[in-house]
Amino acid sequence: MAHEEPVSDHPMLVNGVSPLGTRREAGEIEPVADAIEDFELAHAPHDQMEPPRTAWRDHLAVGGAVSAGGLLGANARYIVGTWATDRWGSAFPWGTLLVNVSGSFVLGFYLTLVTERLTGRATGRLFVATGFLGAYTTFSTFSYETVQQIQQGEMLRASAYVAASMAAGLLAVVIGIGVAHALMTFGAFWGVRGSASRSDSVT
Asked: Which residues are 14's β-sheet partners?
């Protein structure tokens, strides 16, 4: 007659198998205290995935970069706009045109350098592109000034403003990208020449 292995009715041992997969051998009984201790260690909180402790620091750095850039960009826009109005008058929105065109140039130049050559932190890009240039340039003011000129019957002036803003803004981006590429090419050329001259001097 076949001998049947007794099955423990203890909750920590199911069909003779502990939660850790250790099966009882015939005639051997695993101590209950050891099984409970192994089970608690296997399910200890430190084995679970903890949320990153530096997440709040990253959010704080991003918010600080955008805020600082926006503060500087808004003040720079006010200074440039006021200077343009004092110099050329307020009949034509020279201030808005100047900040949008110059901002387009800086954006094309900076993003080209960052994406193709420089490797910095994301907070630097957020500071310049999102914070500073986001507050420095203004599409909403451009739209409002255009509609205002149309309402005043200045259709020719409004058309010239729209055409100049679009054409000069796109051209400024292209020039900024071209200047960045030229600068990278110039820097790469002198970098190679410099390393070559250093190697010649060593040998």
From this structure: 17
> Each residue of 80-101: pLDDT tens digit?
999 999 999 999 999 999 999 9
| 137/100 Cα distance (integer angstroms) | 5
CA dist 182 → 82, 106, 178, 188 (Å)? 33, 15, 6, 10
Which residues does 29 contact at the CB level (< 8 Å), separation at least 6?
8
Of 140, 138, 62, nearest to 103 by C-alpha is 138
Q: pTM of the predicted model, to two decimals?
A: 0.66
- Among the residues of 89-154, which ranges form H helices? 94-116, 122-125, 133-136, 139-151
Cβ pair 91, 156 in contact under 8 A: no
Hey, how many other C-beta atoms are within 10 angstroms of the C-beta on 152? 10
